[in-house]
Amino acid sequence: MKDYYPELVPGAYYHVFNRGNNRETVFFKAENYRYFLGKYAKYLSLYLDTYAYCLLPNHFHLLIRVRTLEEIHAAVAADFPGFENLESLPPPPPLPQCAEEIPKLISNQFRICFMSYAKSINKQENRVGSLFQKNFKRLYVHAPDYFTQLILYIHANPQSHGIIKDYRDWPHSSYPTLLSNSPTLLQRTVVIDWFGGKESMEAKHQQYLKLKYLDAYEIED
Questions:
Q1: How far is residue 88's CA from residue 85's CA, in Å, rounded to a whole number?
Q2: Could you read off the pLDDT of 119-139 as tens digits, one per residue?
Q3: Which fold does the domain 13-213 belong to in CATH?
Q4: Contact 151, 52 (CB under 8 A)
């Protein structure tokens, strides 16, 4: 039986996914997708490395790595404004003092991210109540091949669900960003190098869609 709620420990890789309550829509407009990514960057980018993502109308997928204590401290220090900007300083981000604090901190940051996004969507759609399922699921990425398969699986999701005919045309995934040269918080170089270059990455995605992916890697959305 799969453990969908493992502890988010420093240095480990995870497939994180969540969906709307009762499979309801969570992204209603194109700007909602962008707004969610902004919230994700604000609340989680200092604590996580992100390798792939895909946002779909009623759910999303992320492939992430939890940063170590040293990496988090370095990221927070680099992100903190200089002394000349002290008058306009935002509230400092939560800073763990030991590695044992990180799992709880990451879970809480996800909760805040979801709540902040849901608040705006509820106002937009004139709705009340929870938008996402209460407990977001995650699976521990236990092997290099699993890491590869997840990237392919995540990017293929819009086509697999019949939302679009060609996953390459879906604008709300990391696939087009990985192939571009635009600024990004994604671990673009790591992913491209993992596949042996952009051309190889594109070919692996095409090959993946010609084959039925292994049951061991299939996730119920």
A1: 6
A2: 999 999 999 999 999 899 999
A3: Alpha-Beta Plaits (3.30.70)
A4: yes
Q: Supply the pLDDT for residue 5.
A: 94
| Contact call for residues 109 and 47 (beta carbons, < 8 A) | yes
Type and span of the H or E element at 203: helix 198-210
Does position 216 have pLDDT exceeding 90, yes or no? no
Segment 200-210 mean pLDDT: 93
Tens digit of pLDDT for each residue in 3-32?
Answer: 899 999 999 999 999 999 999 999 999 999
Dump strand ranges (E) for the chain.
Answer: 13-19, 48-56, 59-66, 137-140
pLDDT at 80: 66
Q: Which residues contact 139 (CB under 8 A, 6 or more apart)?
A: 2, 3, 4, 6, 14, 15, 219
Residue 74 neighbours by CB distance under 10 Å: 13
Helices 188-195 and 144-160: crossing angle in degrees, nearest 10, is 100
